[in-house]
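[Meeting: bench + compute handoff]

Bench side (C.D.) handed over the final construct sequence. Compute side (W.E.) agreed to return the predicted structure before the next meeting so the bench team could plan truncations. Sequence as handed over:
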Amino acid sequence: MNSLPRIMRPLFVILIFLAVLAPAVALAKRGPKPKVDPVDYQGIRYTPHGDGRAQCVRAMDIKTGKTLWDVAVFSTIIIPLLEEDVQWVFIKRMFVDDARLIVVAEDDRAYALDLKTGAVKKLKQAPPRKTPPEKSPPPTPAGFPH
C-alpha cells in the first residue's frame, strides 16, 4: 500500500515541479542589453536592432538615408514555461573583416553578412577583431612639459 492516495499523486508531482521551477523563474532577471554602436564602412552604416527574440541588421546609405537591406541575423526560441527576458539574446558586437560584417551574439554565436546583399552565413567562431595600428602621439611643442 502506498503512503499517498491515488488521487493525490498527480497533485504531489505538480507541487514538486512548481517548487523546483518557481524560485528560478521568480529570481531570474536579465541585465541591460549590450550597447552596440553602428558600424560605418565605405559610406554605409550597419545598425543592429531587435527585441531579444530576433536580431537584425540594417544597412543604410549614410548620404541619402536610404535603407539598402534589412536582414534577420538570428532568432532565439523562447521556452514558454521560463521567464522570457532571461532567454533573450542580443548582438554584443559587430565589426568589418575581409569585406564581411561580423556579428557576434551574447552567447558567442557568430555570423558573417555580405556587405552588399546582407546574405547571412553562420560561422563556427568569430574571427579575431583586427585593430588598426596605434598612432604615435603628436609631438609635444617645445617649452611644454611631456
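W.E. noted at the follow-up: The helical segments are 8-27. C.D. will use this when planning the next construct.
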